[in-house]
């Protein structure tokens, strides 16, 4: 097991590098997420394979993590997948991770109107364009993942002016920030991870919306009560499904923008949404990923 130098007193992450067949990538991501992975980066290796870099808290024992990853590789093979190649587990200081992003991450044009830009760059946007600045820490939501981009496109279409929005599982805060920039009066960003909350606060300040986005560390408690005009939830299916009854109660007759689902994982989601009175009005697709705008019928 190879480890890189560790920054004294700073945040350190376990980085697991994998080479996977593209057809198996969703299955591998799901399995890795079950180990409480904090973030996954991907890059093409060949036309048929991609590299996944998964990051875990350093509180997780590296030897145990190695054992779990080897078990995942065996299970992928047993399920008919192609070989999952595991690299060494490295200890990566958070500063090194961020510096890697600085070298490789450039502004992302999500739509004609919307650009997501690294916080250290200044984007010369036109008067009719909206620019969101994001600093890349481990929180999910840099604007590069298809699920984030589809949610941003749906927010551009459906955010009511002067509305109050709730973003459940906000990560970096990018979707709550976008809602406010698209005309919402205010947003509540719900996040249970302290590192993600810190990153969201940082991004709200950078985008000058800190007074309009409230970041809370609770799932469905006192700070998420009140009337909301739109909900957002970008989570993997197995995380989102148990939350749908609470999301329905919080929104009660108001619409929801959601992603994090694939064709393989969406069936249970559709059934639960129908059972609770939801109607899917618009669907976006990007590769294997899906996003929805849904309305709710009370009663």
From TrEMBL:
CDD domains: AdoMet_MTases
SUPFAM superfamilies assigned: S-adenosyl-L-methionine-dependent methyltransferases (SSF53335)
InterPro entries, per database record: Ribosomal_L11_MeTrfase_PrmA, Ribosomal_PrmA_MeTrfase, SAM-dependent_MTases_sf
EC number of this enzyme: 2.1.1.-
Keyword Acyltransferase tagged: no
GO cellular component assignments: cytoplasm; ribosome
Catalytic activity: L-lysyl-[protein] + 3 S-adenosyl-L-methionine = N(6),N(6),N(6)-trimethyl-L-lysyl-[protein] + 3 S-adenosyl-L-homocysteine + 3 H(+)
Compartment list: Cytoplasm
Primary localisation category: cytoplasm
Coiled-coil positions: none
Assigned keywords, A-Z: Cytoplasm, Methyltransferase, Ribonucleoprotein, Ribosomal protein, S-adenosyl-L-methionine, Transferase
Stored Pfam families: PrmA
MF annotations from Gene Ontology: protein-lysine N-methyltransferase activity
Domain of life per record: Bacteria
Protein's GO biological process: methylation
Family membership noted in the UniProt record: Belongs to the methyltransferase superfamily. PrmA family.
Stated role: Methylates ribosomal protein L11.
Entries under PANTHER family matching the protein: ELECTRON TRANSFER FLAVOPROTEIN BETA SUBUNIT LYSINE METHYLTRANSFERASE
Descriptive protein name: Ribosomal protein L11 methyltransferase
Organism: Candidatus Abyssobacteria bacterium SURF_17
Taxonomic lineage from the root: Bacteria, Pseudomonadati, Candidatus Hydrogenedentota, Candidatus Abyssobacteria
